[in-house]
Specification:
Chain lengths: 278, 291
């Protein structure tokens, strides 16, 4: 009996290391192992394979309720506001989504509401040109809300299907920049009832525990309705998504797995758990 | 925070007579949790706790009237010692001295290139920048705009010129212009992308930069070890620049990177504006990581 117990301990420790190094966070990992431990009690064998598969099931159980693909047919134009901290992949993800919906025959518009960063407008315009998607823009330094206002007026008038608003990266701790986002959100709602229909938060798979702070503060400020995680084609596993799924009820829409337009996948709990546990 | 947790823990233990090794182990568990929550790598935390255990079990803690504070002091000191040298000057010898910026996608290389140009010019150097990212849409335009903002010359690549050629030709361009320092901005890439990592190695061999600086986002999690190790093995980086420290990320990646590469953190990015570049302070970083 003691031999079996020692094996369990080693298995648990190995799982702890695997999950912590996958950025799940020590608190969430401990919670998860406790959850699995209670389901294993009273069970017969406790070999490493069984423990591992129980852990995977527990992860799938946490992630599955967050599987909710983005439906853009419930409003026209369906307005998506893309937000997140600096450099996570907002602009690139917008290009990928635009390309996906265009291929489905939808009429898409990009809004260059990052009027702050050097060449941010040019970057989105370059994607628009490449994909054959129109980009509404103003001059560098323009008020982002004004760009959104004009874009939505145009999109409404022409009854486009999807409008995707690109915003400047910003740290969630900067209240004045969060206020700017709130203003964009308000202005969008004034031009069109219910807009933005999706507030999509972009997270970077290489980010550690700070993703929790990012999600919480962006959610507090705007009400995040969907999340997407980029750069899962690297070695980072994005385990923080489990902590986020457990603590927040926000749907996880997509995962980004590369820099090309095809590298966007709909989030699937089981597939994600498979990669996480390796 | 950790200080409060340790104080509460020792207060509770104090009521039970003298402190024991087991008590200290409990306190070290709190330290371990704090470091993991701060994104320090699992293995780096393990080694670190081992290395402070001896001091933590020493008389200065066990006999102290404030053992919580004393233990924290021991941990803090050890962190500061590991995170390094503090002020370390960049190698700017040569004409021009090339500084190569490398790192993952979105870590802040292009912005940091411009900040570095401003920083060095303030120190009296004539500086130029080289846009060696030919992949990302409007990347060259981004560096050119930053150059115009700062009135710093930016090499103009030819249509379809590849990064190695850009890096080599810009050396002559710099010499013709009499520039003392040249900052090479490279495309973001994954450390597991062999062809792109090989491209960096080729640039390094062709240019012989005085510095190969790995630009890392302060919010990077456990992956920091893999990233740093791969870049270091391939390129022998000379230093690290940690960006986005103006956020609330604890920055444990700093300790992980230092532990696996032994390279110094030379500068830190603390904002989006071009003056937001500072010298790295190990003691401030230690306090930030401990939380
Ligand atoms: N490998 C990989 N790189 C990605 C992915 N998504 C985006 N990137 C890269 O990440 C970098 C930053 O992408 P951007 O789209 O400019 O990020 P952003 O959030 O708009 O950045 P800011 O507007 O400056 O805040 C670029 O080099 C992209 O090509 C992904 O899924 N995988
Ligand atoms: N808040 C903050 N933002 C920063 C800092 N450094 C860079 N940024 C921002 O981070 C984002 C990405 O910066 P870039 O300079 O484009 O990053 P990069 O590494 O060149 O990106 P790629 O070329 O795509 O790999 C931009 O929005 C920058 O303004 C910093 O220290 N603090
Ligand atoms: Mg962007
Ligand atoms: Mg760049």
């Amino acid at each position: 009996l003691s031999g079996k117990a020692r094996l369990d301990f080693q298995t648990i420790e190995e799982l702890e290391e695997l999950l912590i190094t996958a950025d799940m966070g020590v608190g969430t990992v401990q919670r998860l192992i406790q959850k699995v431990d209670s389901t294993l009690r009273g069970g017969s064998g406790q070999g490493p394979d069984l423990i591992r598969s129980r852990v995977k099931e527990a992860i799938v159980e946490i992630l599955q309720p967050r599987e909710a693909p983005l439906e853009v047919d419930r409003a026209r134009p369906f307005v998506i506001m893309v937000i997140g901290v600096n450099g996570v992949g907002k602009t690139t993800t917008i290009a990928k989504m635009g390309w996906m919906w265009k291929r489905e025959g939808k009429r898409v518009m990009f809004v260059a509401a990052d009027t702050f960063r050097a060449a941010a407008i040019e970057q989105l315009v370059a994607w628009g040109d490449r994909l054959g998607i129109e980009v509404v823009r103003q001059q560098h330094g323009a008020d982002p809300s004004a760009v959104v206002f004009d874009a939505l007026q145009a999109a409404k008038a022409r009854s486009l299907d999807v409008v995707i608003v690109d915003t400047a990266g910003r740290l969630h701790t900067k209240t004045n920049l969060m206020d700017e986002l709130k203003k964009i959100q308000r202005v969008a709602g004034r031009v069109q009832e219910g807009a933005p229909h999706e507030v999509l938060l972009i997270l970077d798979a290489t980010t550690g525990q700070n993703a929790l702070s990012q999600a919480k503060l962006f959610h507090q400020a705007l009400g995040v309705t969907g999340m997407a995680m980029t750069k899962l084609d690297g070695t980072a596993k994005g385990g923080i998504l489990v902590a986020l799924a457990w603590e927040l009820g926000i749907p996880i829409r997509f995962v980004g797995v590369g820099e090309q337009m095809e590298a966007l996948q709909v989030f699937r709990a089981r597939e994600f758990a498979d990669v996480l546990l390796g | 925070n950790l200080s409060e947790k340790l104080q509460a823990l020792f207060k509770r233990l104090r009521g039970h007579g003298t402190l024991t090794e087991a008590n200290i182990q409990e306190a070290l568990r709190e330290v371990r949790l704090a470091l993991l929550e701060a994104d320090v790598h699992y293995k780096v935390v393990k080694e670190f706790i081992e290395s402070v255990k001896e001091k933590a079990l020493g008389q200065e803690v066990l006999q102290s009237l404030t053992p919580g504070q004393q233990l924290l002091k021991v941990v803090h000191q050890e962190l500061v010692r590991l995170m390094g040298e503090g002020e370390r000057r960049l190698n700017l010898s040569g004409s021009p001295a090339s500084l190569m910026l490398v790192g993952l996608q979105g870590s802040g290389k292009t912005t940091t290139a411009a900040k570095l140009a401003k920083w060095l010019r303030a120190q009296g150097k004539t500086v130029g920048m080289v846009p060696a990212d030919v992949y990302r849409p409007a990347a060259i335009e981004q560096l050119e705009q930053l150059g115009r903002m700062l009135n710093v010359p930016v090499y103009k690549p030819a249509q379809g010129e590849d990064p190695v050629s850009i890096s080599v030709k810009s050396q002559n361009w710099a010499r013709e212009k009499g520039l003392q320092v040249l900052i090479l901005d490279t495309a973001g890439r994954l450390h597991i992308d062999e062809p792109l990592m090989e491209e960096l190695r080729k640039i390094k061999v062709a240019v012989a930069p005085k510095e190969v600086l790995l630009v890392v986002d302060a919010m990077t999690g456990q992956d920091a070890v893999q990233i740093a190790q791969s870049f270091n093995e391939k390129l022998q980086i000379t230093g690290v620049i940690l960006t986005k420290l103006d956020g609330d990320a604890r920055g444990g990646a700093a300790l992980s990177i230092r532990a696996v590469t032994l390279r110094p953190i030379v500068l830190v990015g603390v904002g989006e504006k071009l003056d937001a570049l500072e010298v790295f302070y190990p003691d401030r970083m230690a306090s930030r990581i401990l939380g």
